[in-house]
Amino acid sequence: MYDIAIIGAGTAGGSAAVFAAKAGKKTIVIDSGKSMTKRALILNHYGIEEIAGPELIEIGQKQAANFGAEIVQDTVVNVTKTENGLKVEGESGTYEAKHVILATGALATLAEKIGVNTKDGTEPRIKTIVDVGLDGKTNIDGIWAAGTVAGVSVHTIITAGDGAKVAINVISELNGERYVDHDVLKN
Ligand SMILES: Cc1cc2nc3c(=O)[nH]c(=O)nc-3n(C[C@H](O)[C@H](O)[C@H](O)COP(=O)(O)OP(=O)(O)OC[C@H]3O[C@@H](n4cnc5c(N)ncnc54)[C@H](O)[C@@H]3O)c2cc1C
Fold first, then answer.
1. Among 148, 168, 144, 170, which Cα is nearest to 157's?
2. What separation in Å is there between the alpha carbon of 26 and the centre of ligand 1?
3. Measured between alpha carbons, how far is residue 150 from residues 36, 40, 43, 57, 127 in Å?
4. Does ligand 1 come within 6 angstroms of the Cβ of 44?
5. What is the pLDDT of residue 26?
6. First to last CA, the chain
7. CA-based R_g, the chain, Å
8. Residue 15: CB within 6 Å of ligand 1?
9. Which end of the chain is more exposed for a tag (fewer CB within 10 A), N or C?
10. Looking at the predicted structure, is the pLDDT value of residue 50 above 90?
């Protein structure tokens, strides 16, 4: 049983995975390899002068894996409730988790299929988004959403920050107290 299963390993899902795995939560990231970020040349990401989208994604996934996140290539087709949590069904495997974060980018089809409430998008070319609260919670207990699919502005630094924000909220819920991740410079 994973603490957190993240569906989508773009900037939102990847950054959620970094925070979740670094906090010691058993984390799996399931991705179908269709990140829109793979087409981007990014010149506006704070702290990075220039980076190609595929490289940003690759570094982020490596960072998450270094903290212990499992990253698997699969397309998730269903998420259902079980007695203990949630069952995530992929085309190639099944994964059980206490919490699920939907970070599926421009694709809201999975959210619609599993009964998560959606609404019209407001960003250019993003037709449908998940209806989430400020904390990233959907209408289904244990299912959260972050990034473009949650209606966040379609920019890497914003979607990455939103993935981190939602992961911090999930970690806080698992820990039963507000979570802060601060590392300190050594002299
Ligand atoms: C051409 C182009 C240029 C861009 N240029 C810039 C730029 O210069 N600066 C900038 O800030 N932003 C830019 N962006 C926007 C940026 O890429 C996005 O805002 C942001 O990174 C999206 O992050 P995300 O994690 O929400 O979605 P994505 O990066 O799209 O990731 C979503 C992931 O979810 C996976 N997924 C979806 N459904 C499933 C499923 N059922 N099962 C498993 N996995 C699934 C997909 O395969 C994908 O990998 C650009 C976008 C495009 C298309």
1. 148
2. 24
3. 15, 20, 23, 19, 12
4. yes
5. 98
6. 40
7. 15
8. no
9. C
10. yes
Atom number, ligand 1, closest to the C-alpha of residue 76: 42
- Region 148-173: what's the mean pLDDT? 97
Answer whether 3 contacts ligand 1 (Cβ < 6 A). Answer: no
Where does the pLDDT of residue 25 fall: very low under 50, low under 70, confident under 90, or very high at 90 and above? very high
**Could you write out the DSSP letters of every residue in 106-142?**
T--HHHHHTT--EEE--STT--EEE---TT-B-SSTT
CA 15 to ligand 1 center in whole angstroms:
12
Q: Which amino acid is at 121?
A: G
Cα(96)–Cα(20) distance, rounded to whole angstroms? 16
Global pTM reads: 0.98
Alpha carbon distances (Å) from 183 to 23, 126, 158, 180, 186? 12, 36, 22, 10, 9
Quick check: CB of 155 below 6 Å from ligand 1?
yes
Tens-digit pLDDT profile for residues 155-167:
999 999 999 999 9
Rounded to the nearest 5°, which phi and psi values hold at 78? -160, 150
For the Cβ of 87 lying below 6 angstroms from any atom of ligand 1, the answer is no
- Residue 129 near residue 149, CB atoms below 8 Å: yes
| DSSP E strands, the chain | 2-7, 27-31, 41-42, 51-52, 70-73, 76-81, 86-90, 94-102, 118-120, 128-130, 143-145
